[in-house]
Amino acid sequence: MYGTEVIAVDLPAAVELAIAETEPGVQGDRVSGARKPATLETGLVIQVPLFVEVGERVKVDTRSGEYLTRA
Fold first, then answer.
1. Single pTM value for the model
2. Per the domain annotation, does 44 fall within a domain?
3. At 4, is the pLDDT very low, low, confident or very high (cuts 50, 70, 90)?
4. How far apart are the first and last CA of the chain?
5. Which of 15, 22, 31, 70 could form a disulfide with 38 if both were Cys (CB 3.0 to 4.6 A apart)?
6. Residue 34 included in any domain
């Protein structure tokens, strides 16, 4: 910051966020690489693996907005 003006912002490479809404995974549906949409606590919608459920925390890449892993 310079005085009260923001000059630059440094974001971390990844952040942990909670899944607020997603469809439940179907038992036995283990297709390799299959994805489903999930809404994060911030409102961002990302594609996550079928096994991720509501309430779980996931790591999201801040540069691309993509799912990285469960936290």
1. 0.78
2. yes
3. very high
4. 32
5. 22
6. yes
